[in-house]
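input
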Amino acid sequence: MSLGLREVRVMLDGRAILTDIDLALERGRFVGLVGPNGAGKTTLLRVLAALVAPARGRVTLDGHALSGMNRDERARRIAALFQGAGVGWPMTVREIVALGRLPHRRAFAGLSDADEAAVARAMVRTDVGHLADRTEPTLSSGERMRALLARALAVEAEWLLVDEPVTALDPAHQLDAMALLRAASRDGTGVVAVLHDLALAARFCDRIVVLSGGRLVADASPEGALTDALLARIFGVTAERGRAVDGTRYILPWAKVPVERGKER
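output
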C-alpha cells in the first residue's frame, strides 16, 4: 500500500513552493522529512494530507487520486498532526484524544466500545493517562503536544503524518515519541514526520527525504542521505559520527561550515 506524489508542483502568491516532487512512500516505514527552514517540508506534508492541492501533478493513495476520495474515507486512512493544531475550547485530554475517533463515528453518535479501546491505547502509548481529566489550558506545551499526538494515534489510520512532533518535548519524551513513531511503523503504519533534529532523524528513521528550495535533493537511508557533502551544502554544517555502546550509529551536527567571503549562501 502506497502514498505517492508524481511531478507535484505547488505555487503560492506566484512563487513555487514545491517543484517537480516525485515520491513513493510505503507503509511500515518511518520516513523523516528534513531540510532547512523554508525548504517546503510542511507544505509537502499538507499535500500528502490533501490539505493543499498542487498546481500540477498527482497525489495518489494505493494508486487512486487522493483528491477524488471521500473526505471521511481520507480521514480514516490518513491521520495528521500539524504545528499550531488546537481544539479551540477547554476540553479535557480524554475528550481531545476521543476526537481522533470522529472519522469512525456517525454524526452525534457516542463512543463505541471499539472507540473507547482505541482512545485508551493512544493515551497509554503517549503517556497522557494521568492527564485524562486536565483541560487543554492547564497543560504545558509538551503535555499538549503529547495529547494531540494521542488524538492522531487514536484514529488508527494506515498513515500518520506529523509535523515537528518533538519540538516542544523534553529529552526523555523526545525519545519516547520517536520510539513510539518507529513502533507504529513496525506495526504497519506509514509514518512521515517533519524533523529538525538530524540526530534523532538519523537514529530512528528508516528513510530520510531531504528538501531544499522546494526540491527533493536526497532520498535514501539515513547514512545514504545525510552525507558530509550534503550536510555542508544544504545545512551549512559539519558533523561528528560514531557508534553507541549498543552498536547504533549516530550523527551529531557539530559546527558551521566556514563561508568564504564572496560565497555567502
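quick obs: The first helix runs from residue 41 to 48.
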